[in-house]
Design brief:
- This protein has helices spanning 2-24, 28-56, 62-91, 93-111.
- The protein is mainly alpha-helical.
């Protein structure tokens, strides 16, 4: 499961960067397709993430763990949505996607999941 989570995470960054590049050249139909892929990827990632969390924590506190995961996700969206808006205002949409895609990759070393983490 860690490998699948890492691959889906990196794929999201790639899709953001590709979206930014394609928007720069006004290839909007391709960007729409990439966004559909991005949200499909996020919907695939969610059950993998829940499965991974369920392997890490006791079933007795599963509801608490999943609630915490959901709250963290909501908090990150609340923080990054205005940042994205500011970037779009100052840099344009295509450059904002590029910056967020690069941010995805720059955060990966800190966020990636090692397969041995699960059994520590």
């Amino acid at each position: 499961m860690p490998k699948a989570l890492n691959i889906t995470y990196l794929s999201g960054g790639i899709l953001l960067i590709l979206s930014g590049l394609l928007l720069r050249y006004s290839i909007t139909i391709a960007v729409m397709f990439l966004f559909i892929l991005y949200y499909m990827l996020q919907n695939v990632r969610r059950p993998i993430n829940i499965g991974y969390i369920s392997e890490l924590i006791s079933h007795k506190i599963m509801a608490t763990g999943l609630s915490g995961e959901s709250q963290i996700k909501t908090l990150l969206i609340a923080v990054f949505a205005p940042v994205m808006g500011l970037l779009v205002d100052h840099l344009g949409l295509s450059n904002a996607f590029l910056v967020f895609g690069i941010l995805y990759f720059s955060l990966f070393p800190a966020l990636h999941i090692r397969s041995h983490d699960m059994h520590s």
